[in-house]
Structure formats: C-alpha cells, structure tokens
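Archive entry: two folds, one per protein. Generate the first.
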Amino acid sequence: MNPRAAFRCTAGLLALACLALSACKPPAPSPPPPLSLDKVTPDMNLMAADFLRDFDGQKYAGKVIEITGIYFTWTLVDDGHHATDLSLLASGWPDKLVFALDRKVMDQRWLILDYWSLIRMRGRYAGRDADGTVHFTDSVLISTRFEAKDHPAAIKVQAPELARAFWNTDSGSAESRLYAGRVIEVTGTVVSVEGTEVALDTGEAEHPLRCRLEDADASIAPGQTISLKGYCWENTVEMTRLAVRGCVRQ
C-alpha cells in the first residue's frame, strides 16, 4: 500500500476509535440543585430597621440576608393554602420587606403567625422598588419567636431619655428612629411589675415606660434599678407611642 494512503487509513481508524470512545463515555453529571437557604449560612444577620437605616443596594446585591422584623401580611396562591410571600415591617419605618418563599420548602408555620409578631426570615436580596419596597427571593422562615439574647444591643439608653425621644417628636423623626425597630438596652427604676410587664420610671408618673419580658422574672421588684434588653416598638396607636418587647434582664 502507498505509504501516504496507509497513513490516511491509520488516521481515519484512529479518528473513528476516538469517536467510538467518546460515544461510550457516560454523560456529565448534572450540577446539584442549589441548597435551600435554611441550610445556608447568611452573609448578614440584621434587624429590619438597621437594614433600612444603613441601606446599601450594592453591598446587599445577591447576598443571603437574615432579617428580624414585624410580621405584616402574606400573599396566597390560587389554592388558598400556600403562601407565596411574607412581608415584614420595621417599627417606625414605612418601607415593606417582601420575602418570596422557596416553594420547595413546604413550611406551613406562617399559618399560625400572629400579626405584628416578631419573626426572622432569610432570603436572597433581589432589589428595591421606587416606592421603597425591598424584595428577597428563595426565602425561608427561620424563627417565629424573637429572642433578644440572640441580638447585640444597638444602643444603650436611660428610660427618661428614651421616652423623650418619642413623646417630644413626631413619628418617624430622627430622634425616634435612633431607637425604633432596634434592639436596645434600657436602664431605669422599676415602678411596678405585673406578670411579664415591667414599668420603668420616666419622670412622668402617669406614663412609665412599659417593657414586656419574654418570660416572667420573680427577681424583679419595684424600687430596683435594672437594665433590660429588648425590641424598641413605636406603637402609633397608644398615646405614649412607645414600648419595649421581648425583654431579657441584663
């Protein structure tokens, strides 16, 4: 056989062999499905008010963020049994945080949530509308119970100073937003204890600062000076506009 023809024949056979081998290779494995965010460590863990106060769309872009806020509402799909999203608010802020739920996680705890309760959500930041609404995707409900011990106090304040920030200003003022919607540590003199409610002296006998304990504490008594850590709630319904919820003694 002509050497050149033999070379071409050998090359052709090798090419056919390579094609045959490649045809026998198993297909490349499919990439694993993305982990549900309930199994992902969040990039940030924030109170809703702190998220809004220090808002930075570039810093948040694509990040998995865990946020504690006030449960406000939900949206149902057509079957009326499954929520598509949950919305949170931050006390003292008009903006709404909407968490589109991960449909692969069939979590029905939203059915037993009380409106205006403090809950913790985890989601991937997806942007903010012109009206201030913030959106998260692939979201999961992390906790239906607020635990003050899980959050550092953003600020420490005396009870009379805290009261003045709300009583002498309008809702949403710079003074009240220094505290509203944040975990604070407030110090004051106990004037009364009723179950889980502790009232601290503000200098206004008719308007003490009402602090709701997470659990009753028999060691707290009138006349003591104590420090409590809890969620500062701007209550626009009551005249005093102020309460501290989910408190633990420091």
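Generate the second and append.
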Amino acid sequence: MKKGRVALLAAGLVACFTSILVFGFSGTSLAAPADAGVAHTGVGLAEHALKAYRQGWKYQYGCYGQFVGGVRRTDCSGLIKSYLWWTGEKTNPQPGLVSVAGGAGGMLASATARGNINLSNSSTLPRIHGLCLYSPGHAGVYVGSNYSVDNRCDGENVKYGPVIGGRYHWTTWFKLPQIQYPSNGFVSCDGNLFYYENGQYVVSTSRTVNGTAYHFDAAGKVIKSDTASAEKALQAAMNSQSPRVMQLGMSGSDVLAVQKKLCALGYISTGDCTGYYGPVTRSAVLTYQRFDVIPQTGVVDAKTRHDLRV
C-alpha cells in the first residue's frame, strides 16, 4: 500500500500511462490450447468484429467505438482499435490503452507479417482468425471460413461477406504486432471449435487428439466426434482464451477472485466478497487503479488483472 501511495504522488507531477502487457503463447494440444493466456488475440478480434456487425454499429470517420446517439460508431481502422481499447459493454473504448498505428496504411506498415491476396486463389488467404485485411485506404478483419467484417463508409456501415469470391477487393492480409495469433491446438471462435496446426486451422480433414477422432468441414469447424470429448475440448478452449473484462453488474468466480485480492490488499472488507461486481467493488477497483498509476476505468481489464495477479 505504501509503495502504491508513493506512485500516486509521482502521478500528481507527471501523467503516467501504462500499456497492456501481452503474453506469448504456444498451444500444442488440448491441454495447452492455441491462445492460452493472451490479452489480445486473433480469435478475440474476430469475435469482436462479429459483435460489431450483429449489434449494428455505424460508420463515423474518426470514431473507435464510442457511443454516439446511443449507437457505437467507428471508421475502418477504428473497428480494430475498439477491440484493443475496449473497456466494457456499457463504456466507451479508452484510447492509449494499447499503442497502435492510426489508419489502415499505418497499420499495414506496422505489420509483423503480410501477404498478397489473389481473389481467385483461396490458398493466398491464410486460415487465421483475426487477420487484418487491407485494400488501399481501408482495413477489415478476417473472421474465418472465408468471411470478413469491415466498417465501410457512411450509409454502408459494418459489412459481413466473403473474401475469396466476394464483392470487395481485398489486396493484402497482415498481422498486427498488438495481436497474438493461434499457433497449435484447439481454439473456440464464435461458439465453434477449430484446430490449429502450424499457425492455421485445418479444414476438410480428420485429426486424432488425445485419443479422440475429430472431423472438420470445409470451414474448419468440428462436425463429428465423440460428443463428450468435443464438448470438453470446446469448454477448455473457451476457458483458456482472453479473460473477460469485469465491470459493474457482472458476477462469477472471477469477480470473487478479484474481490478476495482487493480484500487482502485492504481495499474492501470480507463481507464485500460476494462474487457480484457492484458499486463497492467498482469503487475499490478505481482506488486500486489510482494507487497503481494505471488508467482509472473502474473495470478489471487485462492490465488491472495482471497487476492484481489474479
């Protein structure tokens, strides 16, 4: 606590911003799924983009997921930024949580890997959830199974459509340095189970993993296996992926774990450890974030979770 107050005093003299720490990973089997322990993942970005499409987000230049007129709005690169800067379902994203290039061209320039897309050759599009897609002046997200999501322009808004054989002419795929992409193992995306080998999910094939045979369709989804084993694999993959951002109104064992840690640090009492994220917990989190000199959001995001060691 004393150390935290010293840090708070220093913060009064100079603003201090801390980026979210991103961990590396490498899943090799069901026991170690593909994106275990990662704060920002390709799968997470794909699911975020799908959420934007299903919730009917609108296009507005310069926006990155803020509520405007009761509706979230982004431009094309802002759709990707909204995932990196996400603070919760009822709050606006917070710029600066993660450093990222400004526009589509800047994001492409910062890429850790990239390649050309031949729209008549599906093999030129890597089977990787959360790849970023580029067309001059525009960016989108590959969500798997040959489909992309992008926030196109005024009047068009968020679109969902095929990449190969589609109407939009994507020219390049690329990987953002802020995103960790699957390597090997099971991954859950949008409620479906996929299996990665050498950095791409397998399609139209079968694999035996831990003694269970799995069959995958042309989209890479598990279509046939021992039901109990498949459900176990799906649950394990879901549990291993990015922890949720905890905020007001939520409940669960993860909330209780945070409360117990806050209690141990003296921010709340034992009686407040109920597993429900109410105003008392939010106030305690805000106080902890202030002493820890990290963005004061009142939600338990990846950085707050890391610093609390939960």
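Annotation attached to the second fold: The chain is about 25% helix and 20% strand. Confidence is low (pLDDT under 50) at residues 1-38.
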